[in-house]
Amino acid sequence: MNTVSVLIRHHAGPTGDVLICKNEEGVWEFPYGKVHVSETDAEAVERIAWETLGLRAKAGILAMVGHKDPSDGVVEHLAVGNITHNTNTKCDWHCYYEAVNIWQAEPKCGKYSEFRWVHPSELGGVCFDGDDKQFMAKYDPWINGRSIPDVRMP
């Protein structure tokens, strides 16, 4: 089963603030949802932004892929281009896509209790949990240009 998390930027570019949402347990996370069988990941990104937040977003670049090995339950996040030849089709995939808030509107309440636009340089200081915590351990150096060149969405 594929899950998609969306890093929605308020406007395009490396300085665009990213939306984080607080769930019912009080934990900050990126908006996410399941990919339907009949849609692409990009279509899922746009649908999830609309259904969970009331935002029209344009799907951007795949930032990172995580896969959970069914044998041990460990999630491994891989920067795009570094994907190994793991062809285990029983893996649960969790993809992180960047997207841009087309209307530059504010999110509406849905399944989240609170929203915050955070500058990319501040994402590393947010207390995430679960997959998002593991994702940020690899994504934070990338988004801040410390280890991987920033060749993402313009």
Task: Looking at this protein, list some descriptive labels.
single chain, 154 residues, alpha+beta, Nucleoside Triphosphate Pyrophosphohydrolase, three-stranded antiparallel sheet, 32% strand, disordered C terminus
Structure description:
The chain is an alpha+beta fold. The chain has a single domain (about 1-145), classed as Alpha-Beta Complex (Nucleoside Triphosphate Pyrophosphohydrolase). The protein is built from two helices and eight strands. It has helices spanning about 40-55, 130-145; strands at about 1-10, 20, 30, 30-35, 55-70, 75-80, 90-100, 115-120. It has a five-stranded mixed β-sheet. Strands 3-2-8 form a three-stranded antiparallel β-sheet, with no helix packed on it. The chain is globular, with a radius of gyration of 15 Å.
Biggest beta sheet attributes: 5 strands, mixed
- Determine the N-to-C terminus distance: 30 Å
Tally of individual helices:
2
Number of β-strand runs? 8
- Range of helix content: 10-25%
Radius of gyration (Å): 15 Å
Could you say how many structural domains there are in total?
Answer: 1
**CATH topology label:** Nucleoside Triphosphate Pyrophosphohydrolase
Average pLDDT rating: 80
Shape: globular
Name of the CATH first level: Alpha Beta
CATH superfamily: Nucleoside Triphosphate Pyrophosphohydrolase
> What is the CATH architecture term?
Alpha-Beta Complex
Helix and strand content put the structural class at alpha+beta
Quaternary status of these chains? single chain
Strand content: 25-35%
N-to-C order of helices and strands: EEEEHEEEEH
Strand order of the largest sheet: 4-1-7-5-6
Low-confidence stretches: 82-87, 146-154
